[in-house]
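Board notes (copied after class):
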Amino acid sequence: MRLLIVEDEKRLALSLAKGLTAEGYAVDVVHDGREGLHRATETPYDLVILDIMLPGLNGYRVCAALRAAGHDVPILMLTAKDGEYDEAEGLDTGADDYLTKPFSYVVLVARVKALLRRRGTAGASPVHVVGELTVDTAAHRVHVGEDEVTLTAKEFAVLEQLVVRAGEVVSKARILEHVWDFAYDGDPNIVEVYVSTLRRKLGASLIRTVRGAGYRLEVPQ
């Protein structure tokens, strides 16, 4: 899943990005409200972490503009302010949750996961069963038959892109877009490396390469 952090405290923003990347998310960071609004409008993010006190446009205005344009991406607002009025204003503009600085990183991750889980369970089950493969995207657990398989955060993120579209071709570009961040400029063949690892751990025949198009998680007939 791909997250956007809009936070002008660069040290905090980069620290959050590093931690969330280690959790398996693709994370983009901007430090200005106008840039944040532009990025959130142009890119299909799964969640936005939005500071209130920003240069350009403040977080309230960014949030309100996104909602007015019809974007339903979950928004977690951050602020150094502390008071019921500020929380009410943030929620009134369309934010989904609110966290006051200073906050625990563990609490932030829990809020992020809860918002993503809430969004996912609103439409479809977080548990995907494809033949012998069971993937719980909420609990980040994978089983092949009765055996649990341990995956790294990035391996799970690649598998998630495939399992939620089981039977469909998923392009390498889409996997890169949702698993690696906007600034990634390394070798796009990194996707092949992770697919190869997934085949080794889950079964060689599970993921088929569709030449020139991408990868497909095979659904048993």
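Comment from the instructor: The mean pLDDT is 84. Helices lie at 10-22, 33-42, 59-68, 84-92, 105-123, 153-163, 172-179, 190-202.
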